[in-house]
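Run log, item B.
One chain of 188 residues. Sequence copied directly from the ordering sheet:
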Amino acid sequence: MANIAVQRIKREFKEVLKSEETSKNQIKVDLVDENFTELKGEIAGPPDTPYEGGRYQLEIKIPETYPFNPPKVGRCLTTLCSLCVSDRAAAMTLRTVLLSLQALLAAAEPDDPQDAVVANQYKQNPEMFKQTARLWSHVYAGAPSSSPEYTRKIDKLCAMGFDKNAVIVALSSKSWDVETATELLLSN
């Protein structure tokens, strides 16, 4: 990694660790294998959102061209509907990338979606979107329990021998209709 990138990310890494703002917003960052090119971030679900109470793990790659190119959030280690994006403005620092991702949870952008199915549900049935997001947050990010109705539907399909993750994806994508979700599961 270029020397300027290493120097900059070391400084920003320390900034994130010491920042009252990131501490208050429950944002963390750790090195992966003591390597400043690969980091693991964690953001807390914002209050008063379906993501509240969840802890979202992020894989962050620092390009050799940093700071002229921004950190890349390559993938979410916590399964989450449409959170992760990799195109960020070059002016963004490690701290601002993490804060921006957390803010994205609080203010979704359905007209610029990362996932068209999720964006459509957000627009067509906002309450179902919130319940789905709460359930995913509960199952994959440790948020408090969610909709008992959705949990019963998951349990019903799991009792038929389907994989829980596949069931959650099928039900989520089929507006929690057990019949159409079952058809989808059987077709795969």
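Observations after the first pass:
- The two ends are 43 Å apart (CA to CA).
- The chain has two domains: 3-106, 116-187.
Flagged for discussion on Thursday.
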